[in-house]
Amino acid sequence: MTVHNEANKGDFAKTVLMPGDPLRAKMIAERYLEDYKLVNTIRGMYAYTGFYKGVKVSVMASGMGIPSIGIYSYELYKFYDVENIIRVGSCGSIDTNLNLYDIFVAKDAYTKSTYGKCFNIDEDILSSDAYISKLLQDTAFKMNKKIALGRAFSSDTFYADTDIDYFHNEKGCHVVEMEAYALFCNAKLLNKKAAAIFTVSDSIITKEETTAEERQNSFDDMIVVALEAAIRL
């Protein structure tokens, strides 16, 4: 156990899906997993382990932002022998070709955060695991789901950093979110594997957006793609 996680060693599967919202983690467990059990409730950061199509899979909330997912993913990798984490989350589009509810896989993530520098990783762009990202794409293709691949901008703030031209045209980012860079950093630091798949929940360009309830409950395609990929790892 850690100060943030009451689960015992062995309570987590080798592959964990990691949404930001604890209620989304609860929904994934209730809707998709069989014989699941709640393994963490500390700080309301729900974690569950169960079976999807007979394969052991876990889901745990990360909370919002780089520091929060930084703590939870580090502990899963370091203390619970987790090998693979797939972030399943929402993102904002800064690309006119990405619309509400489109599915996006991050091949890498750019940030202005100093999170990596704290671990002597002096790179502002870090890659996802290529194999898992390709597996997510292939799984979506087999399910006849449209999917895009590109760079995410992991922002430290929700209400700023919306210079679309700079992040899209200069840094090559297609979406904005708040966690992927820290996850990729921890995977690199601890020699583990990480990937991130998103559903577009709002467009910074058109100002369209989904409700909090829709973000919690309406991202089924993304979740099923992630689960189908997870049982093949």
Order of helices and strands: EHEEEHEEEHEHEHEHH
What is the β-strand count? 10
Shape: globular
**What percentage of the residues does DSSP assign to strands (E)?**
25-35%
Biggest sheet, spatial arrangement of strands: 5-9-8-6-10
The CATH homologous superfamily corresponds to Nucleoside phosphorylase domain
Radius of gyration using CA atoms only: 16 Å
What is the count of distinct domains? 1
Distance between the termini: 25 Å
Reported for the largest beta sheet, the result is: 5 strands, mixed, barrel
Low-confidence stretches: none
Structural class: alpha/beta
What does this structure look like?
- The chain has seven helices and ten strands.
- By secondary structure, the chain is of the alpha/beta class.
- The protein has one domain (15-230): Rossmann fold (3-Layer(aba) Sandwich).
- The protein has a five-stranded mixed β-barrel with strand order 5-9-8-6-10, surrounded by five helices.
- It is globular, with a radius of gyration of 16 Å.
- The two termini are 25 Å apart.
List its salient traits.
single chain; 233 residues; alpha/beta; Rossmann fold; five-stranded mixed β-barrel; 7 helices; 10 strands; globular
Topology, pairings included?
Blueprint: E1 15-18, H1 22-32, E2 34-40, E3 47-52, E4 55-60, H2 66-79, E5 84-93, E6 103-111, E7 125-127, H3 130-142, E8 147-154, H4 164-170, E9 173-177, H5 180-190, E10 193-203, H6 212-217, H7 220-230
Parallel strand pairs: 1-4, 1-5, 5-10, 6-8, 8-9
Antiparallel strand pairs: 2-3, 3-4, 5-9, 6-7, 6-10
